[in-house]
């Protein structure tokens, strides 16, 4: 009797721990979808206008420099080279005032890769020595944290100088 009770308790604890959600799940999707809604509202248009929402999604996807957001746009078909067409799967639920997480859960059922996208952890610039980093890492820091490509940077010192300029601006 005790053994059966013990097995039931262990099974329930296992199911409870499996039910915990990952806070980073669908992180990129939720952020992009909420930015689309904010863009539509800033333009003074109504979210129920599917065409305006779709245009805002296309515009955001064309202008994004973040690799993860670009991947999201590719997966939903809002990129120029995308092979899929899930754009209406994003805009239709938004027109019915579904929140971003509900839209992303619907998209997850269509394509599980959409919710596998997660942002990289930002690098703490106060803890690393920029002089010892490779140019590839410096470019990644500029791209991910500052959304900057550093046009005209040729040498490592140029990248370091640009990172320090942008981090000083960000602290203000």
Automatic annotation (TrEMBL):
<dbReference type="InterPro" id="IPR045332">
    <property type="entry name" value="ARMET_N"/>
</dbReference>
<protein>
    <recommendedName>
        <fullName>Mesencephalic astrocyte-derived neurotrophic factor homolog</fullName>
    </recommendedName>
</protein>
<dbReference type="Pfam" id="PF20145">
    <property type="entry name" value="ARMET_N"/>
</dbReference>
<dbReference type="Pfam" id="PF10208">
    <property type="entry name" value="ARMET_C"/>
</dbReference>
<dbReference type="InterPro" id="IPR019345">
    <property type="entry name" value="ARMET_C"/>
</dbReference>
<feature type="domain" description="ARMET N-terminal">
    <location>
        <begin position="25"/>
        <end position="121"/>
    </location>
</feature>
<feature type="domain" description="ARMET C-terminal">
    <location>
        <begin position="128"/>
        <end position="169"/>
    </location>
</feature>
<keyword id="KW-0732">Signal</keyword>
<feature type="signal peptide">
    <location>
        <begin position="1"/>
        <end position="18"/>
    </location>
</feature>
<dbReference type="GO" id="GO:0005576">
    <property type="term" value="C:extracellular region"/>
</dbReference>
<dbReference type="InterPro" id="IPR045333">
    <property type="entry name" value="ARMET-like"/>
</dbReference>
<dbReference type="InterPro" id="IPR036361">
    <property type="entry name" value="SAP_dom_sf"/>
</dbReference>
<keyword id="KW-1015">Disulfide bond</keyword>
<comment type="similarity">
    <text>Belongs to the ARMET family.</text>
</comment>
<keyword id="KW-0964">Secreted</keyword>
């Amino acid at each position: 009797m005790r053994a059966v009770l013990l097995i039931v308790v262990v099974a329930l604890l296992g199911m409870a721990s499996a039910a915990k959600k990952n806070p980073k799940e669908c992180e990129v999707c939720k952020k992009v979808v909420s930015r689309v809604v904010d863009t539509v509202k800033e333009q003074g248009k109504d979210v129920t206008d599917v065409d305006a929402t779709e245009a805002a999604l296309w515009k955001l996807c064309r202008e994004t420099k973040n690799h993860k957001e670009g991947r999201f746009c590719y997966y939903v078909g809002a990129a120029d080279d995308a092979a899929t067409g899930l754009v209406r799967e994003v805009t239709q639920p938004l027109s019915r005032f579904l929140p971003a997480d509900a839209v992303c859960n619907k998209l997850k059922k269509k394509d599980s890769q959409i919710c596998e996208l997660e942002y990289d952890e930002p690098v703490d610039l106060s803890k690393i020595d920029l002089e010892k980093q490779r140019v590839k890492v410096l470019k990644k820091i500029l791209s991910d944290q500052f959304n900057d490509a550093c046009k005209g940077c040729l040498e490592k010192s140029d990248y370091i100088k640009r990172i320090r300029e942008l981090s000083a601006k960000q602290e203000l």
